[in-house]
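A note from the maintainers: we've had questions about how concatenated examples are separated. There is no special marker in the raw files; a new sequence line simply starts the next protein. For clarity in this README we add a label.
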Amino acid sequence: MVLSRRNSMSLIETNQGDVEILSNNFIDKKLERLFFPLNLMQNLVLNPKYIIKQNRIKPNDVFNKFKIFLSMVIFLAVFAYRLCEVIFDENLRRYGSVKFLYFEIYSECFVYCTRSVVNCIVNLVQSKNFVAFVLTYQEIHRILTYEHMIKFYIIRNWVYFSIVFGYYIIVLVLIPLIFERWAFHFDINVFTYIILDANLIYTIALLKHLNDKVKQWNIEVVRSPHRICSERMFQVYVQIFECYEIYKNVVQENVS
């Protein structure tokens, strides 16, 4: 990952390519409001990416890391319980023709549990890179910002938030009403799916914001052909590329 030197950002690159975050990383109020719905969503599912407190952003502390680990434990425990239910279900064991069902359930547990572990590792190990992403995006946002679009971006992030929690709230309300019974383990099962969906929506939202900056960059370059503006736009282009590189490294280093 290549990070340019900027006085307004407290980022330095180590020899190994990791980003070291210093303590005085200020974040603009507007950007904090912009990312608030996404950060709230991640905190509600016990998967915080970083900490924003008193206008400063920093990597996860011990408490946040504990929440991330707890979410993984809950996830794995739920799927272990579901697996035990199937294994010791007498009704299923009577029929040898349902082996395909066992295979499907085992495969599902393996895939989802693997995703949970990878997600936990990403949030624990890559918190500094998430901070680097936000700070780099902030530099882009300071130059490529259409004031009339800020409210739209905030509303769009709340829509992402509503999509995740709205859908599952409806499920949690309708299913007990339809079957006229309430089951605690069903609620916990739903929570595990919220964790994965929230993480997916978070990634989509960040990449969508970056894509919007690319479109704004193209517009500004066409409008501002002068040399000074071109130099400034080239620096923004480098920063946009850095954001993509940071997020690519976050994903690839934990999947490969």
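[label: protein 2]
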Amino acid sequence: MQHRIIDNSTEENSLFARLRSYIKNSENIKIASGYFFIGGFNKLIEELKNLKEIKLLISTTSNKDTIEEIALGYRYRDDIKDKIDKVQRNLNKREKDSLITDSKSDLRLATETAEISDENEAAIKNLADFIKQEKLEVKVYLKSKLHSKAYILDYKKHLFDENGNRIERTENGVCIVGSSNFTLAGLTHNTELNVLIEGNDEHRYLTEWFKRLWDESEDFSKEFFEELSNSWALNYPTPYEVYLKILYHIVKDRIEDSQELALEESDIFSDLTRFQKTAVAQAINILEKYCGVFISDVVGLGKSFIGSALIDYYHKRGKRALIICPPRLMEMWQHYDNYYDLGAEILSMGMLSQDNGFEVINKYKDKEIILIDESHNFRNSENNRYRNFLEFLLQHDKKDERRLILVTATPQNNTPFDVYHQIKLFHHEDETNIPITPPNIRDFMNEVIDKKVSFQSLLQRLLIRRTRRHIKKYYPDEKINGKPIVFPKRNIPEPIKYSIEKVYHNMYSEILDYFKDLTFARYNLFNYVKK
């Protein structure tokens, strides 16, 4: 014989198991619960489908004016009862609407936080169908917080056993009251205390109790249905929204997060265009994730300004910078360093090519930011320049503290391994956490050459490159120093047709006739050898 106490201590003595057995013989159920979550409904969905009527009475969990809170504020006041009565009796339309809105928010949160699964999707669809079929009615009790939990079941009028024989039953139904909310936890594994109540008098009393609260409550079925309809289970995304979602996940590493990257309005940042500031923000994200970035905008888009802004960003955070560039660019970088107060040192790339190149670069072992202008000069790993620099980087590996900024409009000249050798300057191991397949940079490059994978899947993680067409399309109104950006217009070459005969008259024909008379004797000496 089953015990009347239901406490979820065992699977057989869980509220879920008891309700499931009683619902099979019932035609209606009335539920009063402080909380409602999809999981509780989903657990009993198959049994609930066979009922004629389901009435769900829930509380608004956001009511700031509950009796308990009033009592706390007026604990020692003689007028506490009057205040409680006033709250219970008088709620104007604005207050009711506010509480209904709170209840909608609670339901929205319940559906949004429900695990996205086939089971929960089916449960939400069934809930919506129950409301459309008028099988399910939902109301919200607003007068005070509904702390009661009750499950009142009305038995079917005619019951039959497995053999089809009619079962005579005098009970009108059965009730369970206690602590369990209509949630998955309340039905199954929370430590609860509920009691089974039988007998027609008790059933009648609890039915009247429920009816009284039901009549005092506000209808919530329409709002309930609206929230379900707008949930992830019923509000299907359009193909375009799916496309945008996929696109976002592809490029999210490159999207500027202005809250995380507070780019100071220093002199250099003030001089940047919008597209250059965007590149700086994207580059910082890449540098922090992979310790290296390619700044590879086409010629004329200000790669050196972007590089200067990156040095300035890290300089303000106490990082020391080194700029390595070809000899002809040293004067330009010295100007940027002085003008924007970058605090950087500048080294000629040619110094690395000398036999003592390692000793030269080794003086800068304290540098945490290294910018290499025209980094494509490091595409070949077999020359002194590359070997000296790589040895320096390996000997003074700063364990993800050093950042390399590779500035080049042409990171690849011949093969993908041009890029590979530059990546190896900041990513020394072939095994990688960069999301590529295979997760080995050397193997990946070989598969790029074999056209088995897309090179772009790696480049989009490490490289920033915009063309003039991109700037004209997405930044058409951009200005520098108040003047619009204008790219020279390239005119299609037009052929100029002319007639040699018309220009030189008959001279061309005469020249050809003279050519015909040439014997080229010096090239045909054997014709003059006597036999």
